[in-house]
Amino acid sequence: MGIVLSEVETGQVIGSRTIEVTREDLVRYAGASGDFNPIHWNEDFATSVELPGVIAHGMFTMGAAVQLVTDWAGDPAAIIDYQTRFTKPVPVEDTTGTSEPGARIEVTGVVGAVDLDNSTVRVDLTVTAADQKVLGKSQALVRVW
Questions:
Q1: 89 Cβ contact list (under 8 Å, min separation 6)
Q2: E-strand spans in 79-131?
Q3: Are 42 and 53 in contact (CB under 8 A)?
Q4: Among the four 15, 53, 98, 123, which has the fewest Cβ within 10 Å?
Q5: According to the model, what pLDDT value does residue 26 have?
Q6: CA dihedral of residues 93, 94, 98, 102 (deg, nearest 10)
Q7: 3-state DSSP: the chain helix, strand, coil percent, rounded to 5?
Q8: Cα 126–chain centre separation
Q9: Confidence of residue 62 (pLDDT cuts 50, 70, 90)
C-alpha cells in the first residue's frame, strides 16, 4: 500500500488528530532534548517572564504536529522538508493526579500542492491549541516513490 501520486489532489484532507499534552510529557521531552528551560516546567518562573504559565517546547509542538504527515506517508524518510513559524505558545495546565491533559493540540493536514515532475506533495498543516493558531505556515514536503 502507500500513497499513489496520481491519486493525490490539491485540497485533499490527509487527516486530523488531537494530541493530548501533560506536564509529564514536557518533562520527558526535556530529558530527551536536553532543553530544561524552566518555562517548560516551573509555573512561577514562566509567569515571572510574562508567559501565561508553563508552555510546551516549540520543537515538541512542531514534532507532534508533523507526526500526522509521517503516518500518512508511511515512512519518516519520505518527509524531505518541514518548516513552520511559531505563532503562539501552548500553555499546559497542571493536571497532576487527574486523567485530564493539560492541553490539547489540534492538527489537520491538507494537500497544498502536487508536483508530478518531482514526485512530491506539499502538505499544509493547521495547528491550534485552545482555539488559537500555534504554528503558522506549517508545511511538509513529502517525496512519493
A1: 51, 52, 55, 56, 134
A2: 79-86, 103-115, 120-129
A3: no
A4: 98
A5: 97
A6: 30
A7: 30, 35, 35
A8: 9
A9: very high
Does the structure show a pLDDT above 70 at 145? Answer: yes
- Assign residue 72 a region (left: φ > 0; alpha: ψ between -120 and 50; beta: otherwise): alpha
Contact 105, 55 (CB under 8 A): no
Q: Residue 132 corresponds to which cell in the numbers above?
A: 488559537
Kindly tell me the burial class for residue 86, based on how many C-beta atoms sit within 10 Å of its own C-beta (0-12, 13-18, 19 or more).
Answer: middle
Alpha-carbon gap, residue 131 to 127, rounded angstroms: 9
Question: What predicted TM-score, i.e. pTM, was given to this entire model?
Answer: 0.94
Identify whether the C-beta of residue 140 lies closer than 8 Å to the C-beta of residue 67.
Answer: no
Is 20:104 a contact under the CB 8 Å cutoff?
yes
Q: pLDDT at position 63, please?
A: 97
pLDDT tens digits, one per residue of 39-48: 999 999 999 9
Q: What is the pLDDT of residue 15?
A: 98
Burial 104-137 (b: 16+ CB within 10 A, else e): ebbbbbbbbebeeeeebbbbbbebbbeeeebbee
Which residue matches cell numbers 491519486? 7
